[in-house]
Amino acid sequence: MTMIMAAASREGKKLNDTLFEAGAAAQAAIKTYGADRVINGTVGCYAGDDEQIACLPVVEDIYRQLPMRDFIAYAPPIGLPDYRKAVIEETFEDQQPDGYTGAVATAGGTGAIHIAVANYSEAGDAVLVSDWRWGNYDSLCREIGRRVQPFALFDSERDFNIESFSSAVSSLLRSQDSLLIILNSPANNPTGFALSYQEWDQVLQVCRFHEREGKRISLLIDIAYIAYAGEKNEVRTFMKQFSNLPEHIFTMFAFSMSKGYTLYGQRAGALVGLSSSQAVIDEFDELGRYSARTTWSNVNRAAMTLLTTIRSDASLMKRIDAERKAFYEVLCRRAAIFTTEAEACQLHIVPYHAGFFVSIPTAAPKKVSQALNEDLVFAAPIALGIRLGVCSIPEQKMLGLAAKVKKAITACP
Ligand SMILES: Cc1ncc(COP(=O)(O)O)c(C=O)c1O
Prior knowledge:
Layout: H1 18-33, E1 39-40, H2 57-65, H3 68-72, H4 81-92, E2 100-106, H5 108-120, E3 126-130, H6 136-143, E4 147-151, H7 162-175, E5 178-184, H8 197-212, E6 216-222, E7 249-256, H9 257-260, E8 269-275, H10 278-295, H11 301-311, H12 314-344, E9 357-361, H13 365-374, E10 377-378, E11 380-382, E12 385-389, H14 395-398, H15 401-411
Parallel strand pairs: 1-10, 3-4, 5-6, 6-7
Antiparallel strand pairs: 2-8, 7-8, 9-12, 11-12
Helix pairs in contact: 2-11, 4-11, 5-6, 5-10, 7-8, 12-15, 13-15
The protein binds pyridoxal-5'-phosphate.
């Protein structure tokens, strides 16, 4: 279709809304059959066993107490100074790598990814992503004239596929001088997978090899779900490996308050940069400030204040740690029912370690999700399979779910 009023260059832009469609179908079924009979696995927010979106209690307490001026005043485009410092601390906790760091406040993790793509990949170049991935990476790259190039996340042993990663990096760097790589770990969306310490080491070896050949590599680690991946310092041990990397390997972390603070709609996050070079961080701060000012201007001041209030008070920190742990344990219990039953009925699922989602591979995602609808189960059809949000399915409804998925998969060869 040619454009009517819009610029010719915008032709064909359309958001892939299969997720929205699946969610709408679930809502329609709830209306017809009642919430008790429907399993809605399309949602990406944490809900308690009452199936209502949940807020961490300490977040609600503190947020409601903030003065009105925190909600209405502008903030600096790069973010409030205390917030920038506190998000760096939260990104690394006790596992802070050696090096210089910087942080730019962003409109959620999405904004962090936008700033990274805009400033650390060349227009027209490919950004490396895994085949199992959050679909929005594609739109974020395409929107500003980049392509995505996927590599296979898993090998035949269902470990990180270092061969596929390495050959994709080599192949792209034959025609590109620089490369941005996006990896979402731990608690990967859509799979729940996490790279091990050794797998990160292998990733860095590949990066170091190409850096020695004169290439520039930027790694963007999307940690959107890290607050529900396990003990906070344990899940960050891999980060120490990013100490003292050569100047032309730049590490960034996409930090989000959406999940870790249950503030999805409040739109706060940060892009955190780490480098052995102060000059790289100075450049990062300047570019981030510019991108923020020209994209959303500045982000939710109250959300930033909330984070610094909690992090600067030991008793509030104790509370948030305990409350996140309680959510994490609920997720583990729900996922354990599914993975145990999947094994029992020989349903092949993607390796789940932690997080909001489990995924089941299938060559016919749409068909399988439609077949599941017959049993009043609603899952998100994604590129390589179907995704179920254990974040919002109550424990009781997890029982017997794997068998229903197995039935739908078997019915759609
Ligand atoms: C993998 C991943 N990264 C980043 C985000 C960013 O979320 P937000 O922009 O709400 O922080 C999401 C949200 O669903 C996600 O699934």
